[in-house]
Amino acid sequence: MPNQKQVDADVVIVGAGLSGMIAARAVLAAGLTPVVLEADERVGGRILTEEVMPGLPVELGAQWIGDTHERMFALADELGVETYPQFEDGETSYDLVGAGVLRENEFHARFGDELAELERVLRRLDEMATEVPVDAPWLAPRAAEWDSITAGAWYDAQGLSPVARTLVEICTVGILAVPTAEVSFLHLLFTIQTCGVTSELFAESEGGAQTTRFVGGTSEIPNRLAALIADHIVLRVPVQLIEHSPGGVSVHCRGGLVARGRRVIVAISPTLAGRIMYDPPLSGVRDQLTQRLPNGSAMKAFFVYDEPFWRTDGFNGQLISDVGPARMSNDTCIPGDDHGVILMFLEGEQARTFGRLPEEERRAALTAELVRHYGSKAAHPELYVDGEWSDRQWTRGCYNVNLGPHVWTAYGPALSAPIGVIHWASTDTATYWSAYMEGAVDAGERAAAEVIAALAG
Amino acid sequence: MPNQKQVDADVVIVGAGLSGMIAARAVLAAGLTPVVLEADERVGGRILTEEVMPGLPVELGAQWIGDTHERMFALADELGVETYPQFEDGETSYDLVGAGVLRENEFHARFGDELAELERVLRRLDEMATEVPVDAPWLAPRAAEWDSITAGAWYDAQGLSPVARTLVEICTVGILAVPTAEVSFLHLLFTIQTCGVTSELFAESEGGAQTTRFVGGTSEIPNRLAALIADHIVLRVPVQLIEHSPGGVSVHCRGGLVARGRRVIVAISPTLAGRIMYDPPLSGVRDQLTQRLPNGSAMKAFFVYDEPFWRTDGFNGQLISDVGPARMSNDTCIPGDDHGVILMFLEGEQARTFGRLPEEERRAALTAELVRHYGSKAAHPELYVDGEWSDRQWTRGCYNVNLGPHVWTAYGPALSAPIGVIHWASTDTATYWSAYMEGAVDAGERAAAEVIAALAG
């Protein structure tokens, strides 16, 4: 699209992440004209593949889909993006509560009772989660009670052994990317319910949210989607102001572009949506909600070796540890490429503290942890690359927003309810796999359906 | 100042609240030229006096100063604004934990042990608060521990009787304007320490933060201050973008005005400061901090009667109750005016719930509570007026920002540290009476001193 000062469309969409582009495609399919305004110089939002060596893409952002992510499987199929299964063969390596490095079979043998105890707590979470309506968590029969405590406080009250408490913290922070002491227990239950059951979320092996990857990298999805609607996307136009009335919207961008339309879909993280100026201003309830939706802190660090030597030793590349900066890792080798690639996750507190160190210090600490688990071969990677999301101006944190105590019950209805001609997308507003790519598609489709129905009416 | 497209100054100041104007005055006194950019059509920010009848001003915003607010006393003196003491004669009326309406002497007789117990807890808070450095709460010896729990959880753990627990919640919410379950215990201790002791904060009678009022209304302070620097204030110019480099700043406003200067002081609530676009973008740490500083919810409701009939019955106009929408009230009559004026406070949960009701319903519920305490004369006010702050576009909540668990320890240093040529003011960044007018002056003076020193260097 040429660099023009005004553009007219039926539907203006803020953000060319997955959610916004899915909405644009649906709008287009309904015979309406969308225009997608993207602040960044690229599409994809929280999806970001970087080719660190020829033929070796690593995922600095969203990476996997799971077996129940039917929208994403359909989308990949439609876009011609092939998938392959996450490598899972071998044992996980543990080092928790001072027990030292233990292979999976040793760990299970030593902590069998504690793991059974944790399993009972997870089943209890699953049962409680079924009482939370995903489209209105504040209507759960025990919403007031569950929203008045943190997930951490609930875990603390279960009388778990140290290893079980540590393990459930690591698994939960692996999803929320903030310590459980910062998140409402109701929000944890909501998150579980949007995904099905805890085993989907926390699964280390079969099933779960991380079973499948995309050939060529996850960015193939947004890139191919963007190619289909290329005439309707404008890059490098940060939105500053949305003027809205029943008659339509004028969306003003830095640089002077004004996009006019009949409706607008704001398809960015709600905390960023709260930074846009609205005229007339939005209600205090909506505004105070967006003051209470902080993004998590997540950092992915990749070590590339000449071969996946840990496989030879019977390891699957996953570690679970409370020692080093990373609490978890994954084997992220690429089929057809000989390199060994280990991804280490820094989430929540670890991303905050180690993410602020000089890269060399962070890398050294992570390397030491890999050496402890996988031996001296881990000491000499060919390449190291990491990336933190809060520094990225148009994202400002990952994986998603987290609601603290009282936010769902006091402000929840304002999260996705349209305000006049303004609609809200982004995975943070999804009711199915919220925070995941599947949720981005869910929310984009829902917002588009709202707009299409309104404009047809 | 004429409506122009560009203005040049030494120091650009964002926000004509008390903090920004104090900074502007200090900058001017140092021989430098300030320009203050105010989004609203008035100065004063969270100070807002409204004359509801001729000669009868009510304070929809900041109202009182306390005996230790030396900067505010000096400022009032300098500006020629007279002060008068808050009316305190008579008894407070209580209705807590189902005890029914009790006069102060009855309440103290019945709950003497519980009040002594509460007193012990407050003394303990005072002791702990002394360990919190007000300019670096994260350096408190027990910062990690205190920042990992909420103020509410700490109160819950003290084994308080129901009446003591209820009373301390009401007093604390009266300051924080959010439930204690949402606020870090470290933040509560910081707040206490910036004010001295809990008796300063919570005092119902002598001393404390609410001893003194301003003749003509609190707005006399910002209005007279604005008159002194009128040539340097531009109204109705919401700031959208701050371009900054070591060489200076260009501050871009909605409507097209660009203010250029050598330094900028952002003198608005940190959550609103986070909504401005910065180029180059600020660090992830600063950004994630501003995602975690929600404003409280506060609403003041005024009932104006033909006379202060409660005084005749020996009441001081203060009620403390867990029954009606308001947890507390005050006699806010004006000397020289015959009307009786009662102010009822809705804070935190009460502001959220009742603030969203139609005014008639809220007024009816508040009236019923006044009648229970002060009899049938309370049923027929001449006038009722209320105001909630989250709906106000350029404030978005009161009285100030509150830090949840982990925010001080993970992000605290970013609250007021300058970033290049950008400096931060507003009472939320103060280290003395933060959240009060006194803190606004403290922060404005501190930011101005930073800038003056930098420009002299």
UniProtKB/TrEMBL annotation, chains A, B:
<dbReference type="Pfam" id="PF01593">
    <property type="entry name" value="Amino_oxidase"/>
</dbReference>
<comment type="similarity">
    <text>Belongs to the flavin monoamine oxidase family.</text>
</comment>
<dbReference type="InterPro" id="IPR002937">
    <property type="entry name" value="Amino_oxidase"/>
</dbReference>
<protein>
    <submittedName>
        <fullName>FAD-dependent oxidoreductase</fullName>
    </submittedName>
</protein>
<keyword id="KW-0560">Oxidoreductase</keyword>
<dbReference type="InterPro" id="IPR001613">
    <property type="entry name" value="Flavin_amine_oxidase"/>
</dbReference>
<feature type="domain" description="Amine oxidase">
    <location>
        <begin position="18"/>
        <end position="452"/>
    </location>
</feature>
<dbReference type="InterPro" id="IPR036188">
    <property type="entry name" value="FAD/NAD-bd_sf"/>
</dbReference>
<dbReference type="InterPro" id="IPR050703">
    <property type="entry name" value="Flavin_MAO"/>
</dbReference>
